[in-house]
Amino acid sequence: MRPLHNATPELKVPELPEVETVRRGLSPAMEGRVIERAEIRREGLRWPFPPNLAERLTGARVERLRRRSKYILIDLDSGETVLIHLGMSGRMTVSGLTAPFVPGEFHHTHPQIEKHDHVVLHMAGDVRVTFNDPRRFGALDLVPTAGAEAHPLLANLGPEPLGNAFSATYLGERLKGRKGPIKSLLLDQRIVSGLGNIYVCEALHRAGIHPERAGGRVGAARLDHLTQEIRTVLSEAIEAGGSSLRDYRQADGELGYFQHNFRVYDREDAPCPTPDCSGTIRRIVQGGRSSYFCPRCQR
User: Fold this and answer.
1) Contact present, 166 and 234 (Cβ < 8 Å)
2) Cα-based angle 161, 163, 166 (whole degrees, multiple of 5)
3) Active-site residue, 183 included
């Protein structure tokens, strides 16, 4: 498969597979450990940090890490939850774990703190978790755990595409009578949460659905196929560590590699990979985002 050519560069926000990969990477470094010291190195990122953030984090034990859509949630024994969005260039990396090798654990020593390391959590056991964000479009908030789902960034999100609430029946109900293109509707976080441009392009191609087709004109059988392909492509991407196009890194600093498995995304003018299809991948712009598809096998 030919390499990504990036002829039409766009700023990319990590999508569900990337965020889930980071969550899984952070889990062995954080869950069950105490934040011995929180080092806050600026007043905020996209928005100001909450008051007394360092004091509220220091001494708290991490109970568990969760993901909701494209957000990481870190539940603390203090009754508060850290809510993190990586933005366009944010990375959360871990250093300092020295136990015998277990997948997801890390063995390199602490690197020197850099200019864009804005939040550094010094965990028990000489483990360090660093939130680095050069463009500062990321976000970090601290909210009561009991009301975390009511946070303005989470309150109106649709169901998780890998969860039981997401199904062809549900999607059909939400798309009924809708004239907007299926691609744009799938990117609406109020309909289904966590989906982004890359994986919607890939799922629509696998399901044989044209991105400009009206959402209300996708039949039940095709919606069933689409929901299955959404689940499949997300699961495959998570197993591959996500997609690294620009700034994204896993929690151990390594690149994801699902970009090597793209069928259509950023493959303009490449042959369609569908067996027995003689089409060529095209690119159009929908809602300011590039859509990649095969005009021959996607209808």
Assistant:
1) no
2) 55
3) no
Q: Is 2 annotated in the active site?
A: no
Question: Which of 21-30, 93-102, 143-152 has the weakest average pLDDT?
Answer: 93-102
Q: For the chain, give the number of residues.
A: 299
Domain ranges (residues) in the chain: 16-150, 168-293
Q: Would residue 63 show up in a list of annotated catalytic residues for this protein?
A: no
Using a CB cutoff of 8 Å and minimum separation of 24, what contacts does 287-290 make?
287/184, 287/187, 289/10, 289/187, 289/197, 290/8, 290/10, 290/197, 290/266
Is 289 one of the annotated active-site residues of the chain?
Answer: yes
CATH 1.10.8.50 describes domain 168-293: yes
CATH superfamily of 16-150: MutM-like, N-terminal (3.20.190.10)
Q: Which of 12, 15, 20, 80 is an active site residue?
A: 15
DSSP single-letter state for residue 265: T
Whether pLDDT at 110 is above 90: no
Higher pLDDT, 4 or 227: 227
Query: What is the value of pTM for the model shown?
Result: 0.88
